[in-house]
Write a sequence for this structure.
C-alpha cells in the first residue's frame, strides 16, 4: 500500500478498500501477474458483487462475471468444464460439453440460491439484451454452501439481488474475501470467500492474460499449506467449525472460473480447467467427497466465430464455414502453469483478505492469523 492519504492501494498488495492480499505478507509467487492481478486483467472481463450482511444470520450474496463485458452477452466463447468432485452444481454445463461454447454472464452464489441466480441472468439479459434473451439462453450459475454462517433457507438471495450484482460489474481491481457469493464461505476452516489472481503469458510476439476467479469454501484445517509449507497442524487451535459443523472436515466446495484472451479450442479450455485442481492442491486440499469442486475455463479470443448471425439461423446459411485461430497444443504448457499459479494465489488472497465473521445461530469463523503465518514462514526461510 502507498500509505499516502487519498491515494489508491497498490493492487498487487491490497484490494481497493485496503484489505491485505497475500503478496502484502511477503509470500513469494511464481509467474508474472497482470496489473491488477485479477481476472479483470483479461481485456473486456468485468466482475460485480451483491453482498448481503444483515442482522445476525444473513451472510450471503451473488458474484457476477461478464467474460466479454456487459455489452457482448450473445457472442459465445470457446469453453470447457471439469468436475473434480461432483457434490455441487453448475448450470449450463450440458451445453458446454455438447458445443464447446458458452455465452452470457456467469453468477456464483450459495447452494440454495443457484436457481435464483440462473433466473437473475435471464432477467438481466431480457432487460438489457432482449434479442439475445428471446432467441435462447442456458445461463451458467454455480454454488457453494454457506449454511454455517448464513440462513441459507431464508430466501435472502432474490432475482433483484442477482441483477444488482450483474449491473454492478466493472473492470479494474477487485475486492476479495467476504464479498458477493463468497460472503458466508469458509476455507480451511478459516474465513473464505471470493479471490482472484492473474498471469501474463508470452506466445511469439503476443502477450496473453490468464485470469482466475474462485469462490473458496473447501479444505480441512490440518491440510492448509502455504507455498509448500504445511501449516495446518500448527494452526489447529481456534477452530469452532470442528465442533459445530455436521459434515467431515474439508466439506464445502469450490467454484473456479478461468478466463483468458489466448485463442484456444474448446478441448484446450477443458485442459486449462483441469489444471485448477493442481493449483488447489498446492494449498493442501486433497478434495473431500463432501466438496463440490467445479471448474470452467473459457477463451474470449475469436470474437464472432461461434455466432451464426440472424441470416444463418436454423439452416438459412447452409454451406457457411467458420474458422478459429488457436495456439497449438504443444505450446500450452505456459498457460497450464499460469492457471496453477493464479489458482494457488487466488486461494491465499481469499484467506489473507478476510476478517473473523459471526453469523447464523452465533456460528463463528476466525480469520487466518496473518502474523502467525508470517512468523512461521519466516522461520522456514520462505519470506525475509
Amino acid at each position: 500500500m502507498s500509505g499516502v492519504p487519498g491515494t489508491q492501494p497498490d493492487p498487487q498488495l491490497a484490494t481497493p478498500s485496503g484489505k491485505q492480499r497475500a503478496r502484502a505478507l511477503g509470500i513469494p509467487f511464481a509467474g508474472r501477474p497482470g496489473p491488477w492481478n485479477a481476472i479483470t486483467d483479461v481485456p473486456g472481463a468485468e466482475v460485480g458483487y451483491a453482498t448481503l450482511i444483515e442482522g445476525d444470520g444473513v451472510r450471503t450474496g451473488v458474484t457476477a462475471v461478464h467474460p466479454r463485458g456487459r455489452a457482448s452477452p450473445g457472442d459465445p466463447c470457446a469453453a470447457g468444464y471439469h468436475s473434480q468432485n461432483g457434490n455441487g452444481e453448475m448450470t449450463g454445463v450440458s451445453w458446454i460439453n455438447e458445443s464447446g461454447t458458452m455465452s452470457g454472464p456467469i453468477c456464483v452464489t450459495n447452494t440454495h440460491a443457484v436457481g435464483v441466480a440462473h433466473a437473475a441472468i435471464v432477467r438481466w439479459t431480457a432487460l438489457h439484451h432482449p434479442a439475445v434473451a428471446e432467441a435462447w439462453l442456458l445461463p451458467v450459475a454455480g454454488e457453494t454452501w454457506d449454511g454455517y454462517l448464513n440462513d441459507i433457507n431464508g430466501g435472502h438471495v432474490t432475482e433483484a439481488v442477482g441483477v444488482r450484482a450483474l449491473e454492478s460489474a466493472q473492470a479494474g481491481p477487485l475486492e476479495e474475501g467476504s464479498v458477493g457469493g463468497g460472503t458466508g464461505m469458509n476455507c480451511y476452516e478459516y474465513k473464505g470467500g471470493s479471490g482472484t489472481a492473474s498471469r501474463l503469458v508470452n506466445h511469439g510476439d503476443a502477450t496473453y492474460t490468464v485470469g482466475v476467479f474462485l469462490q473458496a469454501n473447501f479444505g480441512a484445517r490440518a491440510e492448509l499449506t502455504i507455498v509448500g509449507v504445511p501449516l495446518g497442524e500448527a494452526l489447529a487451535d481456534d477452530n469452532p467449525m470442528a465442533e459445530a459443523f455436521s459434515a467431515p472436515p474439508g466439506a464445502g466446495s469450490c467454484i473456479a472460473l478461468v478466463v483468458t484472451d489466448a485463442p484456444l479450442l474448446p478441448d484446450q479450455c477443458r485442459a486449462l480447467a483441469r489444471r485448477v485442481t493442481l493449483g488447489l492442491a498446492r494449498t493442501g486440499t486433497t478434495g473431500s467427497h463432501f466438496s463440490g469442486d467445479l471448474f470452467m475455463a473459457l477463451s474470449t479470443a475469436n470474437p464472432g466465430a461461434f455466432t451464426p448471425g440472424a441470416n444463418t439461423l436454423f439452416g438459412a446459411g447452409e454451406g457457411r464455414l467458420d474458422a478459429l485461430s488457436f495456439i497449438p497444443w504443444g505450446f500450452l504448457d505456459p498457460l497450464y502453469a499460469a492457471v496453477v499459479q493464479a489458482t494457488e494465489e487466488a486461494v491465499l488472497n481469499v484467506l489473507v483478505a478476510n476478517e473473523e465473521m459471526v453469523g447464523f445461530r452465533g456460528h463463528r469463523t476466525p480469520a487466518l492469523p496473518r502474523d502467525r503465518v508470517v512468523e512461521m514462514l519466516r522461520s522456514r526461510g520462505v519470506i525475509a
The chain has a mean pLDDT of 94.
